[in-house]
Amino acid sequence: MRVVCFRSLALSAALLSVSPAYAVVLDAGAVAAPDQYSAEVAAQILKKGGNAVDAAVATAFTLAVTFPEAGNIGGGGFMTLYVHGKPYFMDYRETAPKAASRNMYLDDKGEVVKNASLVGARAAGVPGTVMGMWEVHRRFGKLPWSELLTPAIAYAKNGFTVADRQYQYRQDALALFADSTNFSDYFGSMKAGETFRQPEMAETLERIADQGAKDFYRGKTSQLLVAQMQQDKGLITRQDLLDYKVAWREPIRISWRGNVIYTAPLPSSGGIALAQLLGIKELRAADFKGVPLNSARYIHLLAEIEKRVFADRADYLGDPAFTQVPVHHLISADYLKKRAAEVNPTAISPTEKVRPGLEPHQTTHFSIVDKEGNAVSNTFTLNWDYGSGVVVKGAGFLLNDEMDDFSSKPGVANGFGVVGGDANAIAPGKRMLSSMSPTVITRNGNVKLVLGTPGGSRIFTSIFQVINNIYDYHLPLDQAVAAQRVHHQLLPKDTIYYDGFAPLTGPVADELKGMGYTLENQGWSMGDIQAVRIHGTQIETASDPRGRGVGKIVK
Hints:
- The protein has 555 residues and is of the alpha+beta class.
- It folds into two domains: 29-248 and 363-414, no CATH class; 265-361 and 455-554, Gamma-glutamyltranspeptidase, large (L) subunit, C-terminal domain (Serum Albumin, Chain A, Domain 1), CATH 1.10.246.
- Helices cover 35% and strands 18% of the residues.
- The protein contains 18 helices and 19 strands.
- It has helices spanning 36-47, 52-66, 129-140, 145-158, 164-177, 183-187, 199-211, 213-218, 220-232, 238-243, 270-283, 285-288, 296-316, 327-330, 333-342, 459-471, 477-482, 506-515; strands spanning 3-7, 10-12, 29-33, 76-83, 86-92, 160-161, 195-196, 247-249, 252-256, 259-263, 362-369, 375-383, 439-443, 446-452, 495-498, 518-521, 530-535, 538-543, 550-554.
- Strand 15 (495-498), helix 18 (506-515) and strand 16 form a beta-alpha-beta unit.
- The longest helix is centred in the middle third of the chain and has 21 residues, at 296-316.
- It is globular and about 60 Å long.
């Protein structure tokens, strides 16, 4: 288990055992999910006596139907669990097909072909969601598998009401996919406020309910997926599906202010990044003393820390099965002290001098806690809204465009504007680097906070800011989740992003511009945090007002 310990301003890394203090029984369970349908399904499962894992499986399959822009069975993700006082991490990230190659998205001149890694069948990695849900249920579930898929089947067969913002995403997707995919054949009829049915998806879910993961990776659904690949000149083969496996990994464990934070290890960059963000900020605590939340000084300090984290991310991080990543060095006390010393509290550090420090749209998240105190923090994705735009004919589900999360060419930005290097180059069977950071915070062995968010490269910076809002500025949970968030990722140079929900304007903006920053409305929401917090035996939820999420307390 990778561990980072923060003790006041001194940091050290050590292996620590799981606390034996786990004992709490809560007054209720809770869920915070990205739409009303998935929240209601999770609540129903908890009421029936299902545990947090049962509710998570049912929620995931429901989102595949009612939240098709991100919920999926054709994508993948990560799940951080805390079950009976012990942490676990499930990696069901997509993998590159065996026919994938390092330069597959470059033209004859060695330049990246626009949208080649985002649109169409060749953009899809081998999906992991169905196998992930199957394996986590097999290990921890209580209720029958088929019962957990029943609500999703009903929504696919009978339909759900399309949300306004969901329709907007559909419009954007229609423009992107145009005549390149069969997306409009399946989703062109979606209209806000109207019922949308998916009969082929219903049949697919019925097969998965009856046969489990076997259908998706070996049965009829796999045959339909491979046929779609062959028709569209995609890369995923029958053998790719047969060979797909999930990975149970040790979560990154951060000991911080008397709390223990469990979050995502590689191939997600999120856990390492969150450890660095919290660690450097702790070492620069004097700079933050008395600084108002989201003031110009506060935002500048965040930018100074974040640019160093992204410099490390670009050069060092990738699938640990393919790349030797210096994880312990990146989160060690000495290294974080070195990075913290580089922070300039009063001016912008020149971008060209911020180097890796060692020597030679759309994802969705839900958080669930059951009455026994077990927790699931799950983030899964198709990558961009509606993934690659390719729908598996006869099966009715969308395929991801996760291949864009690889570095198509070292130093060239992906769809989220993030650059990468050789550590994240494309290779057959490799898992692409992610920023997904499903997180569980515990104290004395008991769950205190479960949270996560979509947002690509903005994920771990958003979680970092919400943690700051709660623990440093003592905001109530709903205010901590709704507060303004900003983002800086080294490149583009000196650019701070914000969103339209909480614009960066007025005197604060003027002061940042005077320092030399460029402020940019990124044009989409800065995450969609779903959080559950526990005080003693009491429980509360918060769903980000940037989205259409719903929180439910289940007595």
